Give the backbone structure.
Amino acid sequence: MKQFGMFIVFTLVLTLTMQLSSASAQQNQVRKSLKASVMQRLGVDTDITIVYSRPGVKGRTIWGDLVPWGMAEGTQYSDNKPFPWRAGANEATSIEVSKDVLVEGQKLPAGKYTIHMLPGKDEWVVIFNKNTELWGSYKYNEAEDALRVTVKPVEAPFDEWLTYGFDDLNGTSATAFLHWEKVKVPFKISLPE
């Protein structure tokens, strides 16, 4: 009987070790959409940092297909509620501003937010949401929005990997952008006067 008890303990320890080893191996795998970040300073001390994951086009039709126009259809992950695009891959894309800024002329207080987007053929809605613990946009809640701005996408040279960056720098403002496939989505960020 004592040997049977030792066998059960050994089996439990072996099973637990194998499960932990498998979980660790999964966490150490290279992601298909690599994590990236970009930072821009405006003025003397206002930092803007965007953290995102970079999916590739990989021959897929992106706009209106992989990334639907408007809200995506609900899934079991979203409790069957429609949700916006996470503006990247994996975890929701985040933006952190060290001081209050204006986005397209509207105030965004200092802090960290997730970025979600509602793509459209002629206009996009860029959403800054207070919930920074989201994985994707599945549990997105509009009541937690800090700011929404509407912008116009522009045609751009093909880019295989989703990229965020900053253009039109003048010291106190910059145009942040998402660029993927042949679309660039700009949104102006400036210091309050």
Observations:
- The beta strands are 34-42, 46-54, 93-97, 101-103, 106-108, 111-118, 124-129, 145-151, 154-167, 173-190.
- The chain has two domains: 1-30, 32-190.
- The chain is about 15% helix and 40% strand.
- Residues 2-27 form the longest helix (26 residues).
